[in-house]
Write a structure and sequence with these properties.
6 helices, about 100 residues
């Protein structure tokens, strides 16, 4: 099984599980990424570039030899507008992405 993680969870993890305090948590994150179990997408990487924690996640991706942030394939990017049109998505995020 593969878990795809979005921007908000990357921010929450960094803000609530301080890397210098929760070392075992971050070791497990590194392990899951290395095993290909935990991934994110390049769109999230782009969103993170504007955030204060971007270097943290870019370092994690670098340590994993670029295994963390993935390209969307097989038309997956075409699903994004469909997801954004769902009532639940609009309720949570309004008319745009966070």
């Amino acid at each position: 099984m593969v878990y795809v993680i979005d921007t908000n969870y990357l921010i929450i993890a960094h803000d609530h599980y301080f890397p210098e305090v929760f070392v075992s948590f971050w070791d497990k994150i590194d392990e899951l990424i290395e095993e290909g179990i935990l991934v994110s997408i390049n769109e999230v990487k782009e969103e993170l570039k504007a955030k204060r924690i971007r270097d943290h996640w870019l370092d994690i991706d670098s340590r994993a030899n670029g295994k963390f942030f993935k390209e969307l394939i097989n038309g997956e990017h075409e699903c994004i507008p469909l997801i954004e049109s769902l009532p639940l998505y609009k309720e949570e995020f309004g008319n745009g992405r966070r």
